[in-house]
What we know:
Layout: H1 2-25, E1 39-44, E2 47-52, H2 53-57, E3 62-66, H3 73-91, E4 95-100, H4 104-113, E5 121-123, H5 128-132, E6 136-137, E7 140-144, E8 147-151, E9 157-162, H6 169-183
Parallel strand pairs: 3-4, 4-5
Antiparallel strand pairs: 1-2, 1-5, 3-8, 6-7, 8-9
Helix pairs in contact: 3-6
Amino acid sequence: MKRTLRSPLLAVAVSLGMLLYAPLATATLKPGDTAPDFTLQASLGGKTYTYSLAQALKQGPVVLYFYPAAFTKGCTIEAHQFADATDEYKKYGASVIGVSHDNIDTLTKFSVSECRSKFPVAADQDSKVIRAYDAALPMHASMANRVSYVIAPDGHVLYEYTSMSPEQHVANTLRAVQEWAAVHKRP
């Protein structure tokens, strides 16, 4: 009797949990969606400037990646991987930008030490861009989840990948850029 009583309760609990988690799991922008335009204060190689997505897209696709916080273990690993792959992205006409809720002073240091002065990182202290891209960390809306997008020059999302593990973000976005380049006759 206990077994039959417990089983329906477990089923209800699992179903309720899935319903509550489902909006969080599917909240990111999807391929084909229009990428929200933004302008943020950014740093590249320790120098701050105003980064404009619209301007960057005039040069080619943009790999936009969100990360929770500079100088944390996973974010440092991810920054190193993007830095190592920056020249490969450039071969296909793409650029990289990282965005977090960190302040610009922190990101200026991060841009040199962890991004190795290879690509810019932008400060979204009020989390407006994080929210616009549905990239907020579940249960901590001011921080970014680990989400990577590839945005086509026409402003549409080509690819999206979400995983707290930093391991596949570069490989997956690079593959998406290569596929875009093949269709658009880039090297």
